[in-house]
Amino acid sequence: MSEYPELEKLREMAFICNRCGACREKFSADMTEKPAFRVCPIREHDGGFEHQCARGRLTIAQALLEGEITYSPELIESIYTDPDCGLCTWVCDSLPLLDPVAVWRAMKRDIAASDQLPEPLREQDRRIQTTRNTFGAKAERAKWARALGLPREGELLYFAGCYASYTQTEIARATVAILRHVGFEPAYLGELEWCCGYGADMVSSMSPDLATRIAADRMDEARESGAEALVTACPRCARGLSKAGEGMKVYDLAVALARSMGLSF
Ligand code: SF4
Q1: Would you tell me which CATH number, out of the four given (3.40.50.720, 1.10.287.3510, 3.40.50.1860, 3.40.50.12500), belongs to the domain 128-260?
Q2: 147-156 pLDDT tens trace
């Protein structure tokens, strides 16, 4: 059995890169001008080395699969600098044959399964399990909603997420005001709300099993509250929860507003 079972499943994808370099610097269409913009924000801001763009990372994946290298703490750390933004996949424009981000996600699943998750992420796992939020904050999660009289149950559940609950509470209050303005009366779980699992599908942080379990638990709570749909103003919560929410509609605020105006997506 392969030492890297998840990466092994994407072997063909990892080797299909033709090393064109478009994921390194994006050129104008006719290739006559200087690079219009650089692609990976990590490569842009952290030295500009090859392993910080998709082409270099795919070379690393190939070397792992060929047994030329193994994971070291430094290599693992560099894999986790990937922000999972997907810009390299968009620039590469080779779906479904090649999705560079899917390759790093597979690598991260292998790293977590072999108990090599970097210590800061282990610490984050512990924080979320003990305090139910990504910051480790001990303060009341639902303080921002005290004066709003939000019901605990309802057809549309507002999921604030950790950032709007603790550090950008104006987003939570504004979201409720906007939803009410267009005719919704959102419910809110208050102190029962937890971290969403931090983008369970992205594997950009946390151990994937824990992230998936947390996201699934959040969706169970939403169903138990009688909600038929969940809305959040956090794109990361929306993305993670929608992957875990079979049978439950999960809307980003912008989409919910567009639908309330009769626009369909
Ligand atoms: S990942 Fe895509 S864009 Fe980047 S070098 Fe390979 S084929 Fe080109």
Answers
A1: 3.40.50.1860
A2: 999 999 999 9
